Predict the structure.
Amino acid sequence: MEASECIYANHKVYDAEAKLAFTVRIVHATQPMLSAVQVYNDRGQMCALSHLVENDQLPDICSVSGDPGSVCSLDKGSGQRALLVKDTTGDAYLAQAYWGWIKPGGNKSVKKRGAIPGALNTLVFDLKKKAEGWFAPCDYSENFVIRFKDVRVDIKTGAIDVAEFTASSLPAKIALAFSLGVLNALCMPRSKQNNPSKVGSSPASNSSGSGDVNDLLLISAAGFAYADAIPSNFFLKSVYGDSAAGCCTDVCGNCDGGCDGFAGDGGAGGCGGCGGGCGG
């Protein structure tokens, strides 16, 4: 396969006083396969990043003994994807996610016409702690909000709240927040009718079960609208077939007749800023 076009978007992150704190660049390519988040400080220096990791870096879940939820592994059979977050001191977090038909917390997802059933199930490992409580599933108890420990991410407004941080720890938490948006874009199912055609093509519209995906700023900022230009589960199945990502067969099948296309300006390659904020 020939090399693909690399698309990217820059997003501005402002602090609680409306001052520019970080610039975040999200990058995608399908060949070679890449999804990355790059965080730059107000001096233009890269201070944190995250990137897609696969089974060449993480063991398959089938090869792990004991509680697989407490070990850094990858379950490709469920369509799980993972991003490794790093800062200037080394590895900081590993964020893993897959699209589940049961919402986090055990509540069944109700499928509505024109809506995507299910929810993103996310597990984050704090690679610097490496002690009791070093990993935890993300909390989805608030609508449109993903929370991991002291990091609260509103995927609808793009607001990022960090309760506890130092100057050195904050960039990795910002990278983690945007990584959660990227994982949504990679794992969220799409209609079979939404077949990739050309870079930048954007189908008409779609809803995520809670509203138009284009109204969820963090997911839109992560490049969701560009179905053919990001290495999502949907893209991998459409190009490589059922063997590419295990969940895609069921995901696309269950969406038949229930999902519309997706659209949106403000995806990767065309977005200005995502209106995020950080601070206590």
User: Anything to note?
Assistant: The longest strand covers residues 20-30. The helical segments are 170-187, 217-221, 233-240, 248-255. DSSP finds four helices and twelve strands in the chain. Confidence is low (pLDDT under 50) at residues 106-115, 193-211, 246-280.
